[in-house]
Design a protein that fits this description.
alpha/beta, Rossmann fold, 3 domains, nine-stranded mixed sheet, about 30% helix, about 25% strand, multifunctional enzyme, transferase, methyltransferase, Lys/N-term_MeTrsfase_sf, methyltransferase activity
Length: about 675
Amino acid sequence: PGEFGSARYWDRFFRQRGSCPFEWYGAFPELCPLLRKYLRPRDKVLVVGCGNSELSEQMYDTGMCEDIVNIDISDPVIRQMRERSGSRRPRMSYLLMDMLQMDFPDAHFQVVLDKGTLDAVLTDEEEATLAKVDRMFAEISRVLQVGGRYLCISLAQAHVLKKAVEYFSQQGWVVRIHQMAGSGDKQQFVLPVFVYVMTKFRKIPGSAPQILEICSEEQEKPMRVESAEQLVGAVKDRQHYALLCSQLSKTPCREQVSLDLCDKESGRPRYTLHVVDSPSVKPSRENHFAIFIIPQGRETEWLFGTEEGRRQLATSAGFGRLVTVALHREQHYEGMAGIQAELSGKVMELAPQGLPARQQVPFLSVGGDIGVRAVRHRDSSSLSGDFVVEDVKGDGSCYFRRLIFLHNRNVVQSEARLLAPVPLLGQKKRRKDKKKPSPTEPPTAIDKSYLCCEHHKAMVAGLCLLGNPEALPGTPLEVLVVGLGGGSLPLFVHEYFSQAHVAVVEIDPSMLEVATRWFGFSQSERMQVHISDGLDYVAKLAAEAPAKFDAVMFDVDSKDLTVGMSCPPPAFVEKPFLEKVKSILKPEGVFVLNLVCRDSQLKESVLGTLREVFPLLYTRRIEGEVNEILFCQPSPEVQQEPRELGARARALEGALMQPGRPWDSSYVLADMVQAVSIL
């Protein structure tokens, strides 16, 4: 690359190449729309490092502009171009000249055009190279009029773009970067071509704001950015995307690829795409490629929100490549047809190899619509960060309310089912002139009889380890729940175990407000919330009230995303603290822990510590989820045989399903014996 700045190198290059034109990148049909935007027929144009490219000839012959001066440091190529152009283009000239030291007077041109020359000169960031580029830019600035444009066609390597943007923006010029619609033969050259449009303005004394913009081929207007670093980052995103599309067009992807498509105005993610290839599906003309739109609010479900689920979805759909599309909250969508029109051009860039030309690609979904999502509340807490409460439509006609922490937006923190309003007996029918409720408007009452989260169902099922199962719902129980969230777990225990006294510990007062206002939670004589750190509260209980609780339940998320365990925080499973948990349990009591740990070594360490403290440890794995529910008992005398454990589970289920106790379904307890393994 260092030879690119040498006249001797280019003399040899063009002698060997002969008269065949050499285009580095950017064919005239691709460049033409942009050049017409920034070139006027009356402009005087300077082309630096012209080589034997046909670009100047094509601009002349199409009438784009005729007053064109071409310069190059290679004598052979200048002689070749003079002969090639001859007298057919009388207003265009070719001169042997070094662009670092030009003979033109100041402010002589309206446009300086550079196709690959800056890339050839700025091959590294050595001091001598940067000094040469500074001289090049200074000369371009000198020969351009105020209001003139420096158009630089480039591959936009990071160091090249950064140098150009910083130099001209500091001079007070307007900097705009355009991405070209195509770059020739993608089999040979996959990187996108960019055009820097630097418009010369007089430098204003003081700290005038920089104007930095980027514009893609599909954008109607440029997007403003705040710094050179952001501009370089935006270009790098587009380069990575081009490389990704090239790879996907040639070979099947072994791992699922994900990317965000962002809103043009705000820059926020609008769609999240996952590309899933199914090697077991033999592609034909009909099943080569499809797009699957995930209804709003259902992106966290196992089928759509996990790699294994998406793989199963692609196989079931029977397509060789399936692109799943998740819709983001607080974005407006114009129905399925609007999404299809918006995405059709972009998703075709992700098409697999061998897709027949003009093949119609189907857009699939569940139920034929895009679902319903309504953000009911948005707030921020110093402990939990930004969060939202939203209502979403599930399968069929069911609606659900969810609490989402935005630092982990794909995880549902708490969920409750909403009850449809039931007309009162004797209520008069609505008059025809009264406004009917919208069919897409979610109901607002919370269904306290329903546990949405599978891990909460399993945690409640663990209570079958306590006492006489038939009498359990009416037995006085002391229960401690650490972690409130939306309150569905303590609320369910309070509602269905009529003699239970429930103490709830929550560190974040905002969560108590959210649970009360949005999830139907309320305190009573049998249920009290204590705003405190769970570590401190348990330590205080261990000192003041040992052997107090029949059940202790931990459902606490960790705010530290750098640890491979998102529930509970590591301090909650350290041995000294677990000893305190054991001390506040009755001898026949049970400690129920929701463990979410992706680090296998860390999980084994946690299980080992639990075994050291608790003689009995049962684990319940949640199918399709990372969660494992651990049931720990402080006394070996209460160990259950599998058959007896299953009988207890069924008895508890039967008690909970008595008239007046509408347990929603027989989801976990009947098959508890299969789900629990004794370690």
